[in-house]
Amino acid sequence: MKIGFIGLGVMGAHMARHLVAAGHDVTVYNRTAAKAEAWVNNNGGRSAATPAALAERQDIVMACVGNDADLLDVTTGAQGAFGTMASGTVFVDHTTASADVARRLQAEAAERGIGFVDAPVSGGEAGARDGVLTVMCGGDQADYDRAEPAIAAFARACRLMGPSGAGQLTKMANQICIAGLVQALSEGIHFSQSAGLDVDAMLDVVSKGAAGSWQMQNRGATMNRGEFDFGFAVRLMRKDLGICLSEARRNGATLPITAIVDQFYSDVEAAGGGHLDTSSLLTRLTQSRG
Fold it and tell me: Hey, which residues does 158 pair with through a beta bridge?
């Protein structure tokens, strides 16, 4: 297919690369043009000067940008993709954004005869690099069916969760679960360090029981070594948890652990750790220990 990809950040650059590897004809846009040019030099395809220029004559346009405001800018802004997308094409948004903006953009797209699928991803930079992301989608079945073969280039799991916004709501549930798991893992490691246990041995045996998790398998040992440079930064997690807590206020859900962990991430950020990955929650405990 002819695919336009907007946003070549930590995740998007890898996702677009997998689209090329799968044989699609890919055009990219990035706010920093030099990054788009470098990507083309390394991967092939072509770059466009604006989202509007990118979106012309594409079958699908994908985006993976920072937040709601960025997403609105590249879709409905003065040089947004919606202005030049042809009727019958599909816009697939991989940004972690609010469910409200997904519904808003789906309605706007429908008025223009464009399909829209909100499709946030999970799996981090490693998942994007290896092409094994989990993709949670919201939208109409027909639009999803057109988008899914392209998404398959970088996904090991992809599912339509419901109407527009359902993908974003599922991603919120994902982030809520991660926040609690990382805090619990941090406390388990901190406790074991304080008790004088061999932490690597503890993680090895505990991971084989009921406490085992992806976070423990992939981050436990690096947390124990004080390594916190694995792509998904604290500042981005705080953005995501803010979306979760805002949606919870709207729908009446009670998220006490999520609210506490968001405050803990705020502490890490205030201590200068906003650039560290999410497993750096442990630093808050080890620093308090002195």
Answer: 135
Record the tokens describing residue 146, joined without a space.
Answer: 């057109």
CB count in 10 Å sphere of residue 242: 13
Q: Could you give the residue numbers annotated as active site? A: 171
Q: Does residue 232 carry a pLDDT above 90? A: no
Residue 116 pairs with which residues in a beta bridge? 91
Q: What is the DSSP letter of 39?
A: H
Residue 212 near residue 225, CB atoms below 8 Å: no
In whole angstroms, what is the distance from residue 134 CA to residue 44 CA? 25
**Mean pLDDT confidence for 103-129:** 96
Q: Rounded mean pLDDT of 208-236?
A: 94
Cβ atoms of residues 197 and 242 within 8 Å? no
* Core vs surface per residue 260-274: b (16+ CB within 10 A) or e: ebbebbeebbeeebb
Any idea what DSSP says for residue 278?
G
pTM: 0.94
Three-class DSSP category at 142: helix
